[in-house]
Amino acid sequence: MTCHSKWIRVDPVKGSRTFANLCWACILVCGATGFLLVGISSCIGKDLIPGLPSEQIVFIPQGIVMCFYGIAGLFLGFYPWCTAFRNVGSGYNLFDKREGIFSIFRWGFPGRNRRICIRFVLRDVEAVGLEIREGLYPRRILYLKVRGRQNIPLTRIGEDLTLGEMEEEAAEPARFPRVSIEGF
Q1: Is 160 exposed, middle or buried (0-12, 13-18, 19+ CB in 10 A)?
Q2: Of 142, 148, 146, whose CA–CA distance to 167 is shortest?
Q3: Is 68 in the same domain as 35?
Q4: Which of 61, 86, 111 is the last residue of a domain?
Q5: Residue 3 and residue 75: Cα distance in Å, rounded?
Q6: Last-in-domain residue among 86, 117, 143
Q7: What is the residue range of 50's domain?
Q8: For the whole model, what pTM was predicted?
């Protein structure tokens, strides 16, 4: 949902709290828990998972390896849960004609620099660019070309938009500061 008036335009940006990330986190944690329980079952000699006998698994070396993979998988599985909980990468793009600034705000990883805020003078914005690459790994990115700086992405990297949606997404930020669109 974009919020805009005559002088200010705010475009929200989605973060890592997506359905796909949560599904992968669930799959990783469930799989890792299974590995850990099978490793512990081989150690204590009792089946902790009903219907999954662990008599054939000897604790040394298979059970230890299963425990190790289970613990490593739990660490890898909790990472997407933490990023989704904190919604890393979310924020907004702010165009302010009255003050003549363009501001990017994103939430980062926990720590001293969790809030990422970058400000530019609006007259330094040269164009709104589109990078469209089709093929096996399609890539569609909307970015700002700022004088003397690298291109600044305005959309998420994994966001799958159609060409019509990309045109609409590019037209609004280009119309507000009155710059051209490049990359069609």
Answers
A1: exposed
A2: 142
A3: yes
A4: 86
A5: 39
A6: 86
A7: 20-86
A8: 0.76
